Amino acid sequence: MSDPKSNAAANAAALIAAKQAEIRAKLAKFQEQQKGGTFSTTTTTRPTPTPTSSSTRPNYSRIGNNQRINTHNGGSNATDSDLIQQKIAEAKARLAKNITNISSTSTTTTPPSVPSQPRATAKGIYVPDAKGRVSTPQVGLDATGSIDLQAMLSSIPKREVATAKANQRQKKDTTPASGIIMKGRYDKTKNPYLDESIETKSLIPMKRKPRQLKFVQPGKFIEKANKERKHAQLEKLKQEIAENVKKAGMETELDISDKALKKEPGPLAEWWDVPFLPNKDYADMDITPVKPEELDQLVTLYVHHPIPIKPPSEQNNVPVVRSLMLTKKERKKLRRQRRHETQKEKQDKIRLGLLPPDPPKVKISNLMQVLGQEAIQDPTKIEARVRKEMAQRQKQHELTNEQRKLTPEERRQKTKSKLEEDKKQSNEVAVFKVKNCAHPKHRYKIEVNAQQLALTGIVIVHPKCHLVIVEGGPKSIKAFKKLMLRRIDWNDMPTPKNENGTSKTTDMMDIDRFNVGGEENKCYIVWEGQVKSKAFRKFTWRAFDSEKMAREELSKWNAENYWDAATAITEEALAARQPEI
Fold it and tell me: Where is composition skewed (Basic and acidic residues) in this entry (predicted)?
């Protein structure tokens, strides 16, 4: 073991030599700067630092290029050398003092203590040995031979600062986790793509765990193959069904999923047989005797009809959407737009050369603007030609209109088709009550209009009540209502005449027979509405003297309720509820 005194002396000698070398280098640098520049004449007196104060030690390690050194006697070299000698003497005195302290502490016996951490002071860094004794300060030098202050600062231990209680409780565990691998385990030269920051246990190649032997049970793969065959057969069956359905035009209506193919088992007994079975099961049908008296109560004359179901091809048919009903102004606007588009298309074809251009439409009013010089040369000839063209255009226009007109047969067919379409909408019924409609003029109007409007029904002529029943479409009934309630003047009953101009006395006797007391003749609507089906096949006219015969005639067509409603209500009540036509 080396002597502490010899170690201290060696360290002191090394420190002195380093200081001397540093001071000489700075002095030489300063002298070179002094030769190159001129100092100011102004001098400043600087007191010499006392050697007793260790905390006010001057720092000679930094001397700038433009820094001026103030001296006592005009900056002479003698003063600088004296200052250097003074610094060397101070360092020797401190070294001797430290050696004396070390020798005094080594003679006294102290119990062994734990080595403390290195202590840094202004004089240097004191490093304790294994026995806790503090040696001389160890000073590090950099590459230039000066003191390495950065190394001295990094070796100074930092003071622990107290934190809050919450931070003290949440101290992080500095011990590495079991799953984390220490960095540097792998060589990056071998794997340059290895990221050590995410190096975990998962990167270690794991060994395969030993497994026990497992023997395949006999028939396992046979069962698996059978399942695959069944699945293939099912897919093939579904494909065949889809192709057949597609041929029938019902590809979007049928469900060919697995649920549709797998049918549920049927019930133990059908619902229509349940009342006849004692235990609601076909198994007991032969065992239990059947009682005839019970069957008579269950069997009736009514037939149960199942609910009709639409075929799959008609279930989701899109209903026919009727065209929007437009006003007269809107129809004119659409017609004008269509004509404009047609004319524009024709003009485009003429520009492209697909059609020849139309001849100019010359009139007397624009004769001079269109023809110009040609009209001035021979105006009589030009006027005759223009009038001829005008007449030809008028004739062509009338001919086109005549060709566009429908023939009488086509008009009748068009009217008939409209009436047939009107009938398909709904079956409307209207019942009228007239005081007297036996006049030939009124009878002719009623029969002809009913025939023209394709109406069915009957007219009952009776002294108590003249009843008119008509059936047809909504438009036909609406037109017949206007005829009965507004167009016919029921009080206009002129005397009927023969072909030779003489009056028919027999017809007048019939009219007077139904005319009660010369009262005002009126027509009222008793009822109007929709029915499920028509009761009459054609429009007829019947006259009866008794009410019973009239009711029996209507009962043949299941329309006696109309007679009851017309005879039961009074004229005042009918007049109060008449609609406005």
Answer: 340-351
